[in-house]
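Protein modeling request. Please complete all fields; requests missing the sequence field cannot be processed.
Requester role: graduate student
Desired output: 3D structure, token encoding
Chains: 1
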Amino acid sequence: MGSIDAVSEETSNWHSLPAQAAAQDKPEPASAEVPSDVAAMSFEQALAELEKIVQDLERGQLDLDAAITAYERGTQLKLHCEGKLREAQLRVEKITLGPDGRARTEPTDLT
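Delivered output (111 residues):
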């Protein structure tokens, strides 16, 4: 019975590992690449699907395989949304050098 308690104590601490320590020095998994169907989505479409996946995962009603697949899809959607946001930011801002030689951003003239 003592060994069961030791395993329980050991596994109960798994969730307390810092996320940064667990993610350090790990390359992005191949599944994190954005497939063509995701790349063709608008930001709003990808965000809506990502929100649905998060809700499904939070409910905890998916079996393990379905949860892993949903998580992988969510990762792809997240990367796509981040890319779309970066693109939008670059369209709205431009980097210039001020009189003091420091870099700063200015709104882009979109007209």
